[in-house]
Amino acid sequence: MRIGVFINFCLIVTVLGLSLLIFLSSQVLGTLDEITAAERQQYKSLQLANELFRSSEDLTKMARSYVTTGDPIYERFFFEILDIRNGKLPRPRDYPITYWDVNNMPSPTRDSAVSLMELMQREGFSEHELDLLRQSQRNSDNLVNLEKQAFAAIKGLYDDGHGNFTRSHTPDRDFAIDLLFGERYTAEKARIMAPISQFMRELDHRTQTTMKNLQSKFQQQILLILGMLCSGLLVVAVATAYMRRNILHPLNYLSRQASSIAQGSYSTRCDISTHNEIAELGSDFNTMAEAIEHEIIKLKQVKESLHERLKELNCFYSIRRGMEAGSLEEVCGTIFVHLIAAMRFPHISSIRIELDGKQFVSNQYDQDHARRLQKQIMVYGKAYGWIIVFYREDRPFLLPDEQNLIDVIGDDLGKWLERKQAEARILVERELRVRDAAIREFAAHVERMREEDRKYIAREIHDELGQLLAALHLEISLLKGVEDNRKRVEIVRRNMSELVDKADQSVRNVAEHLRPASLELGIISALKKLTDEYRKHSGVSCVLRLMKEPVELDEDQTVAIFRIVQESLTNVTRHAAASHVEIILSQEAGDLLIEVRDNGKGFDATGVVGKKSFGLVGMRERAAVLGGRIDISSMPQQGTVVKVRLPVKDAKGFRE
């Protein structure tokens, strides 16, 4: 059976079964309602029969109480009970109630008056049952007449012969008591209870029969529903077995075969023996598996080809990235690594690169390799070298692909060499221009410094030495007029001596400015005197850390170091606003290190590179002339360090 027909059949059976179950359930609910209604009717019927019995008992109690006590309230209760039963007074709430408790009077009601007999007729009693109740009520009415005769005797009224109690006479309580407690009253009372007892038996028989019929009907309906459920379970079991055999098992088998294909077993096929849609699905699955297997074979071939192309692309881009920075040796090493990896048989490949008389070979290079692929490297249109790839003879070449890759790499290497040569020329030209500009600026600066020195010398000679000589000339002229005055001569002589001393000091200051005399004693003495004068004139704490043994320097090195330190201290005074300066001389790897450290406000070292600072330019030029270099490191609010490195010998340790 086809799955679609099976599903439709199951759907129809399910709908019909559910509809029948719903119908039977509604019938069961109806039967339950009938049982409930029958029980309610039975209860009400018994309640009404009990009310007839109770009313008769209450009338007897009220009558006997009245004739015994003579209290008129019992007479009033008697007639109220009688009028309620006969429908002359409305029925109170919660009726029937006892009338023995005078304080618990019946609650009034707004309902219309209805007799007990009419209520019984409303409850659907049978005619025979109603006849029994009417007979009981007639007997009760006869008893009421007897009770009314007793009431009249209590009041002194007697029967006039026509059934009316209008004849007056002396009240006779004993007669009234005898009427209500005598054998006649008891017989009449028994006549009332006999129909009621028979009514109760017939009512109970009728209601029991009705209840048994309804319960039997309910049980039959429940059994029918259970039968339907069992049939439904049987149908479900059969449908489940069919689905497992013809649907679930084939689907599970098909799923396993699909998983097998997903795991790479593309030769998997399905063999389904059912005659439904799953068999068609299995046939389609086999067709799909054959198509997948065919496409996978094609994809593997394409993948192998793409893998080779991808290796070539990776090689191409890796080599290009390697050419962005690095030396010629590094670029050749990059070519060796990536180009060999991109070859069809990298384990038997080797490379040799020949450039302008230089030769670079890979680690696997073997001169016995006979097969080769090569590309001539051109730089600015001229032959500059070769790139050659070797294979052993036991392996063929993939000539079109591998030769194209080698050609591209050879062209890129030629362009890289052209770019490097162009960059080298540009850097050399730029450096020469910068160097020429710096030399010109420094020469102009040196000329200005020389002019400043001339001005200083002229100012010192004119202002200091000239004035001293004029004063000396004046003192000499004064000697002419005081030759006989020894005391005056002594004063003039002393003044002339002081003027000569000052002139001598002025000459020494000019000489010290042009070239400090302490330089003749070596760099250590010169730095000590420079440090002392700096502390004296600037007021800044300055510490000098020197070598344990004096270093041997020539005159140019001594002057250069002194001027560099002097310029560094000048910059500290002008710009740093420091409170402490430290000068250190030490040795490192055969070089003399001179460091000037301050704790001043510092500056942005990168921002000073492009500015014209002739003091820094002069310091760098002095160091460069001696084969050394200067490194300046500084950060805002973190001080400055000027480090000078000069190639010297024989310097060990340092001391404070």
UniProtKB/TrEMBL annotation:
Q: Which Gene3D superfamilies match?
A: 1.20.5.1930, 6.10.340.10, Histidine kinase-like ATPase, C-terminal domain (3.30.565.10)
Annotated SUPFAM superfamilies: ATPase domain of HSP90 chaperone/DNA topoisomerase II/histidine kinase, HAMP domain-like
Family annotation (SMART domains)? HAMP, HATPase_c
Catalyses which reaction? ATP + protein L-histidine = ADP + protein N-phospho-L-histidine
* PROSITE patterns named among the record's database cross-references: HAMP (PS50885), HIS_KIN (PS50109)
- The source's superkingdom equals Bacteria
**What PANTHER family does the entry give?**
NITRATE/NITRITE SENSOR PROTEIN NARX-RELATED, OXYGEN SENSOR HISTIDINE KINASE NREB
- Whether Metal-binding counts among this entry's keywords is no
Against InterPro entries, the record matches this protein to:
HAMP_dom, HATPase_C_sf, HATPase_dom, His_kinase_dom, Sensor_HK_TwoCompSys, Sig_transdc_His_kin_sub3_dim/P
Name of the protein: histidine kinase
Keywords of the record, alphabetical order, are:
Kinase, Membrane, Phosphoprotein, Transferase, Transmembrane, Transmembrane helix, Two-component regulatory system
Q: What positions does the domain Histidine kinase occupy?
A: 456-650
Per UniProt, the enzyme's principal EC class comes to transferase
Q: Which residues cross the membrane?
A: 6-24, 222-243
Instruction: Give compartment(s).
Output: Membrane
Q: What is its EC number?
A: 2.7.13.3
- Which residue intervals define the domain HAMP in the entry? 245-297
